[in-house]
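User: Before I run my own analysis I want an independent prediction to cross-check against. Here's the chain; please return only the structure tokens and, at the end, one sentence I can use as a sanity check.
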Amino acid sequence: MNRRQEIEENLNQVRKNIAETASKSGRNPDDINLIVVTKTFPISDLEILYSLGLREFGENRDQEASVKAKALPQDINWHFQGGIQSNKLKSICSWASIIHSVDQFKYAQIISEQKSATPMQIFIQVSLDQPPESRGGVDPAKLIELANQISSLPNLKVLGLMAVGPVDLEVEPAFARLQQIQAGFLTHFKDAVYLSSGMSGDYEMAISYGATHLRIGSSILGNRAPIK
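Assistant: Structure tokens:
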């Protein structure tokens, strides 16, 4: 099996799983956005994904993604989902369509200051870890305060919330809690309806708890090459 066949087979299986899980949850599969996490994979793999119709790619490192964005077609939507460093944000804003990991007001301020034709779309990252904020993400108790601050800034559009499944806790209770956090959030921010959660190991669980954006890498592209 060549690389294209391998990726296509994996992609078809993931899409089938998404459709089946969505249907079981009473949801429309078309409402779920698949972002293929392409970090550490070569441009040749991304070209295969592009040829298979994918346009939503996720990256975690500015240095790597900025090179890929220049090498690939302009109609790709690039999603930045890694930990944010203030000194990288200006560059990230030059290639990313959506930033998933905003968890501090100072980052939102920097993004807001960047000149762009349309507002930058962002997710606010919420921590599901105990203790909160140990791996990034705002403490849920501080979420509304942060979102109120961010909503006062120009040139930004908050799409909703993002979270990463906890490492040392069971995933299902964490996603159930995330769904409750989102419900509370929506009473304050009615237009921020999207939920970015679910990766290769837990995306079906995430769908059943309301995920609208899935960030899936290894289930489609296989095990990642080591970061150099």
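Sanity check: The mean pLDDT is 95.
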